[in-house]
Amino acid sequence: MAKNIMTGGITRREFLKGTGAAITGVAVPDIGLCTTGTVAEAGTNETATGTDLVTISLNVNGLQRTVAIEPQATVAEVLRGPLNLTGTKIGCDRGACSACTVWLDSVPVASCMMLAIDVGERKVVTIEGLARDDELHPVQSAFIAHDAVQCGFCTPGLVMSCVALVENNRNPSLEDVKSAISGHLCRCGTYPHVFAATLDAAKALRG
Ligand code: FES
Ligand code: FES
User: Fold this and answer.
1) Ligand 1 centre from 104 Cα, in Å?
2) Does the CB atom of residue 31 touch ligand 1 within 6 A?
């Protein structure tokens, strides 16, 4: 996995902590958030208590997780609720802002638009799953270096799409970056910083 190239040693924990502080520091509520079930680690005997819950197994950030959820729960709701992976944000909850972007088999998707029961064997990766051994992905580091985080609400989704881009294309053009984040809404207007950060991260990855 790529090295921490630009942060002077900022760790994943510090990045997530900083982003979280930015989010809670402004009046941007997590609208649409709904706790929709319970979690049971694979191999335990824990069962659902509600009559309408279904138990499913999800591979999230490399771990197999068993959750008892309402059938209509979206991936975003299950991540943020029973799995407590709150780095993924819910903005519009209807596929219009991309704040909820995660990877499904390495492809960015709007997690508010997919039912958790439809994920099946596909692997989910969230913002919490990008770093390795507490070392940020270069895109995360570049977001910090280029001041691409303001309130931070859109940031996890943007990072997921930008990392997917540079992992598939080490030499993206500005147009490639714009295309990769089309559909991501940032009301703080960080787009120029996101462009610069992503291009810089790709350059660093090229070595
Ligand atoms: S919260 Fe999913 S697209 Fe806006
Ligand atoms: S940083 Fe505030 S919405 Fe993008």
Assistant:
1) 15
2) no
